[in-house]
Amino acid sequence: MPGKLKAKIVAGRHLPVMDRASDLTDAFVEVKFGNTTFKTDVCHKSLNPQWNSEWFKFEVDDEDLQDEPLQITVLDHDTYSANDAIGKVYIDIDPLLCTEAASVISGWFPIYDTIHGIRGEINVLVKVELFNDLNRFRQSSCGVKFFCTTSIPRCYRAAMVHGFVEELVVNEDPEYQWIDRIRTPRASNEARQRLISLMSGELQRKIGLKVLEMGGNAVVGYLQCFDLEGESGLVVRAIGTACTLDKVSSGSAPNTNTHVHPNTAPASNACNSPSKDGKESPLAHGCRSTHNSPVHSVCSSQRLSQNFSVSVPTLIFTGMGSGGSAGKEAGPLKTLLRQHTQTALEQREFPFFTLTSFPPGFLVHVGGVVSARSVKLLDRIHNPALGNTRSYKLLDWNSVTADEPETRDAWWEEIRQEIKSHAKALGCHAVVGYSESTSICEEVCILSASGTAAILNPRYMREGCLDIGSTDHRFEDPSPPSCGFCHIPYDELNMPFPAQLTYCYHCRRQKVPDVLFTTIDLPSEAAVTGKGCLIQARLCRLKKKAQGEVNATAISNLLPFMEYELHTQLMNKLKLRNMNALFGLHIQISVGENMLLGLASATGVYLTALPAPGGIQIAGKTPGDLSNEHHILTIQKRINDTIAKNKELYQINPPELTEEGLGSPIPEPRQRSRLFRSHSESSDELSELDLSHGKKDAFVLEIDDTDAVEDIHSLLTDAPPPTGFYSCNTEIMPGIYNWTSGIQMFTSVRVFRLSNANLTNQGLNKIFTDLCENLLKSFYFKLRSMIPCCLCHLNFTVAVPEEELIQVAVTAVAMTFDKDQAQEKPAEKPINKGSSENEEQLQFPLELCADVSSANTQPSSKVSGTVSLLTPAAKLCQNQLVMIHLPGVPESTNVSSRAASVDYGSFADRCSTWLELLRLKAHTIRRGSVKTSRRTQSLAHSVSSLERCSPLPEGRSRSLRSSRSFGGSSVTVVKMTPLSFLPGIRIIKYLGIINMFFIRETTSLREEGGVSGFLHSFIAEVFAMVRAHVAALGGNAVVSYSMKECVLMENPNKNQAQCLINVSGDAVICVRETDQEPTASMTNIGQTCCSANDGAT
Amino acid sequence: MAVELDVFVGNTTIMDEEVYQLWLDGYTVNDAVKVRMEGGVLDECEASADVLLSDTMDQYRTFQMCERLLHSPAKLANQCSNDFPLLCLSLFRYYAFDDAFVREVLGKKLSKGTKKDLDDISAKTGVTLKSCRRQFDNFKRVFKVVEELKGPLVENIRQHFLLSDKLARDYAAIVFFTNNRFETGKRKLQYLTFQDFAFCAGQLINNWTVGAVDNMVEDMDVDLDKEFLQELKELKILITDKDLLDQHKSLVCTALRGKTKAFNEMEANFKNLSRGLVNIAAKLTNTKDVRDFFIDLVEKFIEPCRSDRWTAADMKLYLTHYTNSAHILDTFKHQVVWDRYMGVIKSCIFKMYHD
């Protein structure tokens, strides 16, 4: 069914000089959607052209609306030669297709060129009119909301969680097409950007279709990835969790973040969107998703046999001290299955959930981490679809007939099956915190999937499930909320692996394991002792260079050992910190030509419900040797000291348990488990060793060779974060509850060149460990002004871009918190805190840091804080006060409390306001006082009381007499965070998903400051473009931001480099927690802006 | 083994003021690291030298990237940047200058030739060459931009470079001096600071330029009002007409008598001093004499007074009465021009009369 897309090109500014003779540009704009193109008039001789075009109207299928981006090209008109391209803007119009999201896209977009970067900006207005009821369409899935956030988005509640959705599309990579030899790098980059934009659009549409089919209306935890397979093509794949979300009306529950009590959930089923035929039978869903994958198992296995494929025996990380147990546990599995009551989940093909945090009561028990990896050889993807009516028509893998070569779908299916069976082995019917990733080097590809086996409360599934669920005794026996998820899901007598169980230290009724590993965030209801910390295991393994099958075999032989060793490291480090559980575990294994890199990150915590971890004991292999004995003693002492120090550092003071207090005095079956170094042993031995349990309660490390000594040293080299810093890779730090509003999101990339050709594993390990440690140290140093603060969501990505290069990319957010209250968990969510914060802001401590006039300021004399200003244009968004944080301020403790949009009415006002503030600041500093001047207070007053007047004195606002005009511009301060929320700030509206892909290439690498300069400016440009798009949607923040891909290729000898970045996140509108829900005018910001712009032109 | 690439990009830029100052002062990365290490930043944060080097390089790169923006600050306001406040702050620092340096180039042509002399100036003033270059380029940039603009000079500078009032005024003074090529380098003028000159420039801009009468003309605040300069010739009557000169002297002396210790010197020198001031006025139509304006003021008026040990109060008293008495002269018809001239001369001399 058709829809009408309308676009209007208003103006441009700061265009580059394209005509050397006149130092000016004759710019015009091409607006393209699908195969239709419109042009504006040429605006002669101007770097700030005003086109003010008519509305260009495109009448298109809504299928196209979902797939295609609006493509805007700015060109320089040339009478005699070809017109020169200045740059492009791709606008994803998907957010306009949701009725609830943005209604108009309007704003200044950076004009981006893949060779020159950002070249000026263009003001564009886009609207969509859809003609028909959205739900009737088959091919399109307009209206399905997408969220990157891996929890139920705030301001929604989950009426129903339907389950796993996945899709992938494949195409030839334009970079590897024959035509690439004759076209310019720019054309090739643009073809690639456009193709990926198309493919993501298509992917999203298809996922949307599946969601509609399941009866859902949203995808949460949407994770889209690219596999750049080089010669063999380009794969875009996505997974997510289909849900039915209800918007929480703001009036009824303004401050809860939508976590609905489970009991109310079934009742709300009535509000579901019509879920059509499949409603009554949960089975139908499972079948349906099978239908979507046309590759029948027979067929696929046949294909598989033609190609080379190695499935790696996968370890199940149960978190038991014994480490991994090898994969095939057919015996206990069957018994388990028999015992386990069937739930609806089991009937689904893949009971997987990409969510990492859940409404209370959703998660019943957690089994442990399950993961699967598989090594594949890539084959050229055959693409017959070219030359179709739509020349860009993508090859949809699923629609291709069976005589196509084997599919990625089959590969993933294989892996998912494996994950599913692992989960079953752990007595669990579902996998939560599920994610998939790949690592590609030449033609070898490692596919990985991991998640946490869990038992979920079926009340969140279909109604039908409820009855089945209630027959399960486990669900009748409600566990205490704060420890229930720790209780073992598997049967004590038929444990899938040897484990040490104790009664829960919290409720004393159920059994818990001694250690728990998970990939999810710490459930909010969990009781934690002390604080958590980031725990990383890092590992390098050399491998011989090889080709094809030999290479794949070599890699797959190495993988289990790497996994095992990473696990060992994690376990040791966990014990060293006196903790007993890992959350957010993410293990990445990257393949390079001559090495494999493994990096496991997780957040360690001490769960009150789990037993205290035993210490680590060192044992020598030859007890008689005196010098050795002495050596061991010193190491033992160091370890014990470290444990004691860590206990203090992380404030782990578990309540002392009196054995008598236990209801049933069970003899603690604390068993000694040995940890062996794995590389010298085969996997067969591993399983045997698992059975060797002693009677000691400590963890024993045996030193049998020098390697082991090195290992223990490396264990002790992890420096704790400096005082005032905490770090974790989960959303928030367990044990810190009183966040203040200071946030700083950052991305950091480091590439290390190994010059030494003959490195040992040990040497490599050391280099890799140092690289990661130094990165962390750099962050602490850079962010020292934010102390006390916590680095949250530290997401490390490692890669081996070339033979001797190791690349580590990190995205994280630093958040400040209130030190004084850090130890206590507030009874309620800190709502009241907001008001005190508010008061604080009303006084507007206008303390800036830099003394402008004096060149040398004393750090100690600097005061810092929040600056606010209200420009006349802030009338447009009355409720959004303007708070701008001055970063880089030493000793800054109180930073801007919320995101806000700043509309700068005119340039003149804007700068004079700043001058005003800066002068005040200078004044304040001169007086050496924190008190604000009278002027400040009046300013503050005008801001706080939302008076719609300019704070500028008359004299300042006199109009610009200069011939140049900067009027009509609006700039929005857009906050970004990888978390799903902003502290002290309430998200009131989700505007849609941001999913952007950029390529940047340079042939003047040296001139741009080398690779560092090149990448630095590229990342900064990506941030700027994300912010511009969010602002154009009317938003003021991005949550769940992540950088999925950062591929850097360089050739310094040729002075060239190329970089690909893919980022995603959720665009939102948010207000300070204390503020009232903005009035309807909020939604009209865009329109107000555009009318303002109209007025200006 | 080396770190090949190392970047850190925040959603808002993190800027270390100390490093920024080091950068502005022209330190190399390695020197800056040394300075920071000596400053003890490492001890505060339990960091290593590597971390410091990485941080310093990163900061330097950020500054270099920002530098482009700082060169045309007007664009700053429109960048999709969260860093506007930060950039404003860094802008002030970037456009700040050393008085010692500006004193050396004040009034000189901002040409390649002068730029070549920067290493001498650097050696003389102790300001690093890099910093000299930046300051010099800043002057040149501001000069070039405002050259073509209509409207008040200070306001234009403020608008286009987002500078503070004070800094904008200082730049206006520099532009004004450069444009009129005032001589400031003579030995006799060495005792004057940049702030003295900046004040005088402000007076001249506000009262003697075209802009003082008409504020929509191009270069209004940069060029002196030609008509006014012509009219100044008429003042010559005060010294050429003997009666008028005597009358003026007696009026001034009557008013001054008994009010100052230096009365005798004032009485004795009256004619000399009056000739000096009026001659300066009469000659201002010549560009060459405009250039020598300050040196003339010092030679013809300030030095004689100083050798007679007038106090600043004496000077004030004398000039006030000298100016006012002219109004009482019935044959003297050029009151308006006289006031416009003496108003500026008075305040300039007050400012310049110090050791």
From TrEMBL, chain B:
<dbReference type="GO" id="GO:0005634">
    <property type="term" value="C:nucleus"/>
</dbReference>
<protein>
    <recommendedName>
        <fullName>Fibroblast growth factor (acidic) intracellular binding protein a</fullName>
    </recommendedName>
</protein>
<dbReference type="GO" id="GO:0017134">
    <property type="term" value="F:fibroblast growth factor binding"/>
</dbReference>
<dbReference type="GO" id="GO:0070527">
    <property type="term" value="P:platelet aggregation"/>
</dbReference>
<dbReference type="Pfam" id="PF05427">
    <property type="entry name" value="FIBP"/>
</dbReference>
<dbReference type="InterPro" id="IPR008614">
    <property type="entry name" value="FIBP"/>
</dbReference>
